[in-house]
Amino acid sequence: MEGSHTVQNDYESLDVHVGQCFAVLVTADQEPKDYFVVASTRFTKREVTATGVIRYTNGKGAPSPKLPPPPVGWAWSLNQFRTFRWNLTASAARPNPQGSYKYGSVNITRTIKLANTAQKVDGKLRYAINGASYVEPTTPLKLAEYYGVADKVFKYDTIPDDPPAEITKVTMEPVVLNLTHRNFMEIIFENRETAIQSYHLCGYAFFAVAVETGQWSPEKRKNYNLLDAVSRHTIQVFPKSWAAILLSFDNCGMWNIRSEVWDRHYLGQQLYVSVVSPNKSLRDEYNMPEDTLVCGVVESMPRPPPAYT
């Protein structure tokens, strides 16, 4: 699952949300003939179905023309999420298998709650996170930061870590969170809408420790899977529900957190996190390549000296 080895379970149906991927083993132990593999949309007004055929070489008979209906409702999907568990003895060089990182015993240094909303701004639909709808600046964020002129392009931490219960106003701006290198973070995705959300974090894998209905509160931490939650890159958030992830921001750079639903991403449901190396070391981040094209406010500025040594 998204690069992680999971405990092997048997499934007749898999819920794959936007941006997610699975590898599956299909056991050919049925009566030799043709069988359908069915993919169908869920949680949409109009159901679309596609079929493929698994064919035994010595098969006799066509697949049944009657397709089984997909599972109904998203409670089934939520319950299936809870069956996905990390295989603690698989992968990695011995004696350090996947489960050698005890993420459940690391102290949380910062909690950020990200709440999505859909509202009109000047008569046009915009999607927002914590009341801010992302717009691209004319100068790339990382370029401005590398040249030391970030203050001319964007401001850090313009959205609150804990959004208000009701978001009535939406601003349109570049959104960049300033995170401390190697801090162990808790991020709560709170879905205040009636459509299922899917979030992706670039540059990192995170531990998907909980997905539940209702509103998140600190007391909900007692329900986290702090032993064998899967390390992955994308997580779904059901309607009027929340999802919690844990991770260490140990990869320096400028990284995107976004909705994997493309129209939401395009219309503002995304932000960036900046993780700067405090040691200015090439072990943490490379310097900007010499042939990098520049634009915006830095276009006429002299090339800064290498930031990392």
Automatic annotation (TrEMBL):
Keyword Zinc: no
Keyword Glycoprotein: yes
Keywords annotated in UniProt: Glycoprotein
Pfam families linked to this entry: Cu-oxidase, Cu-oxidase_2
Molecular function terms from GO: copper ion binding; oxidoreductase activity
Domain of life: Eukaryota
Record-annotated Plastocyanin-like domain positions: 1-58, 139-280
Protein family: Belongs to the multicopper oxidase family.
PANTHER family in the record: L-ASCORBATE OXIDASE HOMOLOG, MULTI-COPPER OXIDASE
Name assigned to this protein: Plastocyanin-like domain-containing protein
Source species of the chain: Gossypium schwendimanii (Cotton)
Taxonomy of the source species: Eukaryota, Viridiplantae, Streptophyta, Embryophyta, Tracheophyta
